[in-house]
Amino acid sequence: VEASIPEPQREAWKKFQAHGFRDKDEFERDTVRHVETTLARSMFNCDETAAYAATSLAFRDRLITQWNRTQQRQTFSDTKRIYYLSLEFLMGRALDNAMLNVGAKAIAKDGLADLGFRIEDIIAQEHDAALGNGGLGRLAACFLDSMASLNFPAWGYGLRYRYGIFKQEIVDGYQVEVPDYWLDFNPWEFPRHDIVVDIQFYGNVRKYQNDQGKNVVTWEGGEIVKAVAYDVPIPGFDTPSTNNLRLWSSKAASGEFDFQKFNSGDYESSVADQQRAETISAVLYPNDNLERGKELRLKQQYFWVAASLYDIVRRFKKSKRAWSEFPEQVAIQLNDTHPTLAIVELQRILIDLEGLEWDEAWKIVTKTFGYTNHTVLPEALEKWSVPLFQNLLPRHLQIIYEINLFFLQLVEKKFPKEREILGRVSIIEESQPKMVRMAYLAIVGSHKVNGVAELHSDLIKTTIFKDFVRIFGPDKFTNVTNGITPRRWLHQANPRLSELIASKTGGIGFLKDLTLLNELENFADDKEFKKEWAEIKYANKVRLAKHIKTTTGVTVNPAALFDIQVKRIHEYKRQQMNIFGVIHRYLTIKNMSAEERKKLAPRVSIFGGKAAPGYWMAKTIIHLVNSVGSVVNNDKDVGDLLKVIFLEDYNVSKAEMIIPASDISEHISTAGTEASGTSNMKFVLNGGLIIGTCDGANIEITREIGESNIFLFGNLAEDVEDLRHAHNYGDHSMDPDLVKVFEAIKSNMFGDAGSFGALVGAIEDHGDYYLVSDDFHSYIQTQELVDEAYKNQDEWISKCIQSVARMGFFSSDRCINEYAESIWNIEPLQPESKNGLPKSE
Ligand code: GL9
User: Fold this and answer.
1) DSSP letters of 120-186?
2) Tens digit of each residue's pLDDT (9 = 90 or more) over 23-35
3) Which of 236, 557, 559, 755 is the most exposed place for a label (fewest CB within 10 A)?
4) Domain assignment of residue 424, given as a range
């Protein structure tokens, strides 16, 4: 407050406060000024990189002004805030998004043209911010966009990794990982060197009575690492509200280096200390749906959680309210169990540092937190070894034991006759060594637990968290089906389709209320509209075909059916079933007469996605796809009838190009394994149909768009357990078509069969855990239905239009409104005006 400018001087400030671009002159002036001053270049050495930098800085200036105003308004109005804690934010590129969200892309396009650049080339200069693995991280990014667009006072908290998810290169058909150093030049972050938090690790706990005879606990010694804040502005769409994503970077506490060590000649070890500290935020763990229990990962989690809570608590304390009001001011959402330590840390702050009684503190804690579960796969559920915990966070382990004690007492009281339940639900698993079960801790410490699609939310209630539903009652458990932001995934990725939709739905309002897409139902049979629709799809396919040509050298026919499966490579997602299906198709074509071949719909099978570096089976799948591709794509017999493509380095910006080009996309996980999936929503929203299992959000997509607009196949989740059981007891008769596929592989048709032995063996000999053989027949049959349906282009396009018309439910805006109402209990904070912003496009 003391830093506030006195009233008489504020006029001078207001005169020069920045606003949105009034016109292209203003944009050009700012951009040229950044080239000439910030970048110290001129028109004689301004390449595309420099033009990107200057354009971004010009937009950044606008965002940060709006950011400041939004923050001031939130502070003055003193309303509740949401804090979204996520170890991953898969943001992708920021410039295009910023241009569209502040409604100045047309101005920038004209302005850049005046300055001698094409806007597409400038946008393409940006390096993706890839601080995430897949769906979970991208969901967090979509949520940030929605929270800002809906004017919710919300902060994201994460880690500022120096290396995001690795870059994938394909060398001789194998995945090779290359580090993703993305911070060379990042105009979208603001270092806050004044916001630094000391984070403690290791050390000892001391309990004693103070002078007043009160029991106190202190955590002493160990080591200190500094957390430095970096802020990323998050602009809302068509609103001046600009929220904040705060990312923490680790730094040695002793500053540059330890002077004592330096002076005593121990220069190397002083530098080593510094590097050790910086290691904490150095790299994103590249696993998807897998936890490996490494100490550095736990360090990352505590570092990030402790810094974020310090920040949140400090902000609350400025309001001078009573602690009991904390949950009325603060809602913290835990994106998976990764930030579960926040529950323990808040309890520690309240009892050890603020002197509250246990019960009073615990009431505040549990009212504050909500926990989102994103998977039922057992290998993904986080567990930390007690000895490791004891060493790194001794005080937190004590608090966890205490939480567990009170919790188990409650359970015992409720179910006095059931001794076994205590061991089952205990936060501490009595294994060798003992383990802390993070999901159980998250449930016990939160007031709401949600899954991310209906089936998934039902499954967590009936399987992994069954006991907890009995203990806490069913109301603690709820569903919030995932969503996607239509701004990035339609307006930005598919501008022509967005424009066409706007022309029929009364403008761009549908981007803020996606249910307005409903209007399109009236055009599902409109000849002229369908023609334009088909032209746009074709143009998007031409664009992808060009990308395929330049990156793989393979020529594909844009008129062929584009069949796409892009997502992390994982056995449960069953890319192996897809490629076996492709082999089946190849064998079928080879056996056909020329007459029969003529009747076939040409198809391009496109794969993309990263395998975790240590996931050998996933890497084998990539290798098989590439090996099949090199045989099929060079087979003169086959020609355009079948092409097999693996797209290197799938990421957010590539998704923006790939998704609008699909005719059919594959979401074919073993039923019950994919919690939601979100790319299924993106593909349908962009006018592609999907082939999928009854899993995750596919089920709700079917309900919305209608059964006749989706190609569903395969066993149901409720039958999976029995099928697996049958396999393990010898009843595993292999599907005959799949047997033929395996024979082809074993005949070395796609290179040395030995390299694919494990993949085939997992199905033939090791129980076929993901039920590939059980679903193969219905998969192949359904693909034949796809072939048939695609031949009738007229009907196909009608299906696509009708589907898009019914996708309104899957906006992440709907999703955020549900969280706000049923979990966060928070209202939006309307901005004062669209101050200085031009009307959006
Ligand atoms: C995931 C699920 O596997 C997806 O089905 C779901 O759509 C997303 C978002 O809720 O969450 N859970 C999970 O661990 N990942 C998911 O994508 N994996 C990562 O991205 C790390």
Assistant:
1) HHHHTTSPPEEES-SHHHHHHHHHHHHHHHTT--EEEEEE--SB-SPEEEEETTEEEEE--B--SS-
2) 899 999 999 999 9
3) 559
4) 78-93+128-479
